[in-house]
Design brief:
78% helix; Copper resistance protein D; transmembrane helix; CopD; CopC/D; Four Helix Bundle (Hemerythrin (Met), subunit A); copper; 0% strand; mainly alpha
Amino acid sequence: MEDPLSIAVRFALYTDLMMLFGLALFGLYSLRGAERRSGAVLPFRPLLSATALIGLLLSVVSIVLMAKAMSGASEWLEAVPHAEMMVTQTELGTAWLIRMAALVGAAVTIAFNLRVPMASLLMVSLLGGVALATLAWTGHGAMDEGSRRFWHFSADILHLWSSGGWFGALVAFALMLRPNKVETLQSVQVLSRTLSGFERAGAVIVALIVLSGVVNYLFIVGPQVSGVVESTYGVLLLGKLALFGLMVGLASANRFVLSPAFERAVHRGEYARAARSIRYSMALELGAAVLVLGLIAWLGTLSPEMEAGM
């Protein structure tokens, strides 16, 4: 089994970069005008600044851990020269440098949110998307060559972006559904509008996740299921699919039952109870998403081919 610390760092990095990208993107397509200013609806500036800085720290730890594992070094300091060599002489190192530059740019750009909220969120979403895409170079696609490598990377990146879009939206709704945020009619109206508006975006996101996930499976395992479920990789993959199914079910309940009920309650001025129901559903969906990210981080360290041969 891969080092638990490496899996934990991968999980934290996936969660962090998806939040950076997805939350900024949510502010662009769901909020309007002054609502995009930090503090009006969501605390964009402190949250995205912290996320970018944490991403920088996690990226440093990640590259040293990879160098330590590849070199066989027993101490962290022994791995530093190997990490420097990886950064300067490998494609993975180039992707890492691009990620670091994108995260620095995001941290600087979000500082201007109060002055130019839309432009700052646009830049953070673009830079966050670049940083998130670099995680593909730590996955299975890096082992391919030629055109297969290109298409595998493309599917990986699309999967990362669509997953980040969903995760960021869940974080945004969790923040907007806090009890102290559903006390005024204005905040409740914004919440109702964004919940309704996310229906179309959510459907597109789910479709992209399914499409890119199927393509990734075909690249990694091939058009087969026999034998895969007997491996650790297969068990984790089944767990991921079960959690994804739960998330889709909860999202469907939100879309077709809870959101319409909340919208009707807002018109009647009785939104506290309806907000509570959506809050519980979103909490479950966000919890499932966190577990999925943990499984993704673990799956990225496993090879179904190697396990099949053991």
